């Protein structure tokens, strides 16, 4: 069997010149059936010379045959890892890594078999392009699966799927260098440096910056979580100071990660001296409210007006502060909902802090009784004693029932009592106290009045009297009939 002509020699031969009587740019449609047949014949010849060869057939057969030993050794490798290695690994990332390798035992066995096949083919001076491409794709798939199984992070799972797998696929098909060159060619000029050299920022630089920033940002978040855990464990620090340090770390560490990523990829910061000032001014004008909320958050923590755990009331929202973030304060209400209140709203509109200096607060329970009540002093003492029957009412300071005024229809009292757990709500304890007063009034037989009006006519116009007399006569006549 005659060996096919090498692809390099075929490519080196110049293409045949078109006939002089035919146009050089003749299309397939204009050439008719003969041109289509000629093009298909050229494509088939190229396919035969490159793909339909003995070497490619051998590689395809090896790929199919490699599945058999992988399917045989894969379950045994999984059993070995699950019984011997995984139980001895400590809990945490090492235990998850061992379980991930056990889960991917069959693909790993297939990878080992294909690597052995590549070494054997290279020793025999045979082609390995097809198997090498399969090994690259299989490696990318194993890496992606290991990342998703070990780290269990949605962010890194997406990074592995959208970054590692495409890069390995492009490298497997041999087009990675071409893609890199195209990304480098697509660039945006950003100015000149101090030596007058034009600087540009390419699409490849952007991708490198995003990749490096992603790694550094993940590291910054891990470091932030570690530092905040150590800060929260220090009992000598106040809650507000811990929140201030947490807010500074939340803002500072991502900025440091971004600057470090730009520095690593070699971003020319000197070229942004003028352009950066204009962009900074535009961003500052467009983000006034965001910047205002940011600095308002620092002000709230610095002056200790509110802090996590305080019970506050702003507008129609009543609850306790669960978190103080860079832009807003999380206020959890009694109905279980979380209100995200911007930081600058506390400074511009004010806030009622029920537990600013002391968590003991005073509540009011007003009520009124009839003027037929004689022993108002005894009634006030009975109301004070009845308020103490409610669990959340404090004995010290003791409740106080004051006579407030002699109203139009009732004698008005105001029962004042104290609680020390406003986070559990104030309306509910006020309701319990007022229901206790209601029961006390009925037990004592004290009337709770309601508005009444008596109209006494001393004098009236003559026409009104005639009308009244006429109406009375009409009613009397209707009764007689």
UniProtKB/TrEMBL annotation:
Gene3D superfamilies: 1.10.287.1260, 2.30.30.60, 3.30.70.100
Location relative to the cell: Cell membrane
Claim: Transferase is one of the keywords in the record: no
Keywords: Cell membrane, Membrane, Transmembrane, Transmembrane helix
Positions of the Mechanosensitive ion channel MscS C-terminal domain: 367-447
Compositionally biased tracts (Low complexity): 1-12
Domain of life: Bacteria
Family to which this protein belongs: Belongs to the MscS (TC 1.A.23) family.
Stated name of the protein: Mechanosensitive ion channel family protein
């Amino acid at each position: 069997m005659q060996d096919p002509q090498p692809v390099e020699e075929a490519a080196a031969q110049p293409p045949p010149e078109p006939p002089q009587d035919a146009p050089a740019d003749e299309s397939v449609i204009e050439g008719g059936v003969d041109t289509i047949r000629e093009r298909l014949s050229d494509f088939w010849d190229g396919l035969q010379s490159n793909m339909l060869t003995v070497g490619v057939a051998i590689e395809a057969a090896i790929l199919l045959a490699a599945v058999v030993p992988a399917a045989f050794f894969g379950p045994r490798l999984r059993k070995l890892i699950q019984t011997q290695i995984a139980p001895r690994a400590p809990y945490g990332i090492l235990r998850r890594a061992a379980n991930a390798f056990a889960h991917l035992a069959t693909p790993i066995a297939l990878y080992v078999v294909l690597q052995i096949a590549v070494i054997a083919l290279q020793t025999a001076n045979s082609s390995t392009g097809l198997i090498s491409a399969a090994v690259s794709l299989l490696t990318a798939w194993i890496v992606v699966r290991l990342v998703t199984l070990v780290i269990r992070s949605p962010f890194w799972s997406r990074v592995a799927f959208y970054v590692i797998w495409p890069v390995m696929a492009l490298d497997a098909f041999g087009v990675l260098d071409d893609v890199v060159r195209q990304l480098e060619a697509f660039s945006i000029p950003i100015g000149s440096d101090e030596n007058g050299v034009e600087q540009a920022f390419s699409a490849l630089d952007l991708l490198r910056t995003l990749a490096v920033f992603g790694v550094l940002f993940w590291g910054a978040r891990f470091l932030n979580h570690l530092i905040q855990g150590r800060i929260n464990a220090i009992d000598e620090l106040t809650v507000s100071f811990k929140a201030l340090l947490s807010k500074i770390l939340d803002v500072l560490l991502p900025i440091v990660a971004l600057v470090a990523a730009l520095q690593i990829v070699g971003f020319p910061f000197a070229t942004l001296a003028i352009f950066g000032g204009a962009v900074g001014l535009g961003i500052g004008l467009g983000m006034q409210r965001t910047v205002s909320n940011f600095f308002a958050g620092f002000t709230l923590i610095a002056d200790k007006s509110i802090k996590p755990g305080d019970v506050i009331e702003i507008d129609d929202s009543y609850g306790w502060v669960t978190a103080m973030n860079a832009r807003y304060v999380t206020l959890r209400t009694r109905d279980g909902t979380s209100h995200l209140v911007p930081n600058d709203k506390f400074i511009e509109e004010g806030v009622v802090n029920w537990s600013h200096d002391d968590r003991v607060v005073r509540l009011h329970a007003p009520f009124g009784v009839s003027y037929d009540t004689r022993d108002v002093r005894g009634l006030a003492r009975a109301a004070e004693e009845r308020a103490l029957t409610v669990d959340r009412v404090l004995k010290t300071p003791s409740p106080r029932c004051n006579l407030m005024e002699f109203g139009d229809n009732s004698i008005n009292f105001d029962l004042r009592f104290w609680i020390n757990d406003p986070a559990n709500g104030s309306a509910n304890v006020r309701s319990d106290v007022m229901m206790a007063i209601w029961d006390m009034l009925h037990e004592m037989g004290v009337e709770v009045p309601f508005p009444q009006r008596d109209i006494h006519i001393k004098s009236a116009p003559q026409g009104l009297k005639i009308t009244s007399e006429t109406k009375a006569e009409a009613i009397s006549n209707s009764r007689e009939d």
